[in-house]
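Protein fold
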Amino acid sequence: MPLTVKIWRDGESEPEGLFNQRMCPNAPPNWFREEPRVAAQLYALECGVGDWRVNVLDDRGRRHVFVTSVQWKLSASVRKSE
């Protein structure tokens, strides 16, 4: 299973380190030892609400591009009081 070594959004330049410190200053480095799909999901969640194209470079030198969507979900539950 390939592991993530770099991750960034479209519109950002490819980071020099393991991940883009400007966008995710508190992200734990081990996130980027995940498989590319999981890393893209975690990165999108850290970026916040919106639609993001997330680029992932794996440890085999392959670039993966994922389209992500993060949104708040309202939920209401109604039941009859007894």
